[in-house]
Structures are given as structure tokens and as C-alpha cells.
Amino acid sequence: MTNAPGRVDVIVPGEAAGQRLDRFLAAVPAIGTRSRAKQLIDAGRVRVNDATAKSARAVRDGDRVAVEIPAPEPLRVEPEDIPLRVLYEDEHLLAIDKPAGMVVHPAPGARRGTLVHALAHRLGALPGVGEPDRPGIVHRLDRDTSGVLLVARTRPALEALARQFRERTVEKRYLAVVRGHPGSATGRIDRPIGRHPRERKRMSVHSARPRSAATRWTVLARLEGATLVRLMPETGRTHQLRVHLAALGHPIVGDRVYGSRRAGRVAAIPFPRQALHAEEIGFAHPTTGARLSIRAPVPPDMQRLIETLRQAGRTTAKSPASA
Question: Domains plus CATH for the chain?
Fold first, then answer.
């Protein structure tokens, strides 16, 4: 691989033959993520053997891949003084306890008040650290999911963390309150996920073009009409945990997208968001390699939900009608 200002040239090695072009480029340090690779390909900045190519093209041993890297664009978001709960911070990365209701980066319908706006105020501009409208963002959590989220402060840190997510060496643990009671104490859901065949904003296990997805789960407590579970995703597909639990017949309490259609006869439990919390993340520090494990406390709204359902179960167990 050779680098020149604004350009990267790579010869495809034999072990990478057969990979999609965007997946191959995501492993190139100067690019770092698959979304960034696709963005460059779609913009016509990538040539394979002197010809433009599409993201899905399979690379071959000895292919010459040339990538034109544009100069970093100025930050597009205005800094906003939004308080952040910091769980860990050094000169390379930041770990945030993202509250439910906060969008990670600007998107249609969320042009202000995002985590990126708050980071711009706290960290200033991060030129070259990811995409201009989402600088430093390594991974995402849904708007209504709370918990640990990592942010890179430098380009090498972004590339190193993105590689760990891509190679699935990051360990993630979530807590969820699901409707009903699973029949066993532990399990593994291995069902591919892709776009819903009719509703493009939803994901589904019945997609025409699914990608592999697997989730391990463990029951922590059986509550009144619900169960507290710990989830360990082995892959990182969009809405994976929500889709998998709905497919299992135990949708997450409060999930308005995937909950109502798969709930069966289980009574609805009022909650203003999906009861899903990113509890812990384990990874290798991008510079030192030391293993870090960062936890976010269960937010008050989920604590209240769990305690309410636990107390309801105790009341039901003591009532004469249940005897």
C-alpha cells in the first residue's frame, strides 16, 4: 500500500480475494469504516484497475485499487451546550452514557440537539476523524436506547475501534425488559436480518436479502408479565436486539415499532420507550491495547419499571385469587 497526499493505492492480496470492494476498503487504515468506503465509492473516488467500480464488486488477487481521499470538510454542525454524562475520557477516546431520547448524529427530523452537537461543544472540531456530520462516531445506539457509547477523538483511535467492531472483538452487554416469560433460562437466537420486504424503515428476519445475526440471552429475573434479560449480541445489525426478541415472541416492553405486532396475548405494559439499555462494553484501548470494560448504570426510568413489575408480581402471588 502506498499513500500520497489525498490518495491511497492498494494491491489486493490473495487472502482478500473474493471480498466486496467496500468491505476490503474498510480494512484500509486511511479509510477505516465500511460506510466511509461506500461513500467514497458512490462518489466515484475509487478505481479498480483504472476503472470505476461498485461497492458489491468482488476484488481479485492483484487488483490495483486507487482511492482519492478528499480533504476533510469543515464541521457542519453548530456546537450546543448539552450536558453529557462521561464514563471514561482520555486523549484518544470518550465513553458517554447516552440518555434515552438523544439522537446520536444529525438526520432527517433531528437537525439539532444530537450527541454530535454536544460533542462539538465539548471537544471542538475533529477534522479527519470520520465523516463531517458525525465526527468521532464509532457506533450508534437507537434514539430511545440508553447506555454506553464510544467516541474516538483521533483518526487512529477511530480506525482501531472500527476495526475491533468489524472483527467482532468488542464485547457488548445489554439489559432489556421483555414481554412475557421465555420458556428457558438461556438461549441463542441465530436468525439473519435485513430490510423488511414491504416497510423499508423496519428490519425483519423475513428479508429477501438478510445478513447473518446472532444474539445470546440470559434471564435475570421473572417479573409480573415480563422478564428482565441480559443480551449479548454476537453481531451488530441494525435493530438486531429488537428484531430478534420480537421474532422470539418476547418483544421489548415499550417498543412501538416491533412490539405490538408480535406480542400475541401478552398484556401491554405502559412504558414511553423501548426498555433497552447498553449496560457494558469491553474492548482493547486503541493505543495501549489494554482491555477496558466500561459500564453505564441502569437509568432511573428502567429501574422504576423493573421495581414496579417486581412489586406487582409479589402482590399477585399474595392475593387469594392466585392461590
Answer: 2-68 (3.10.290.10), 86-167 (3.30.2350.10), 172-278+302-318 (3.30.2350.10)
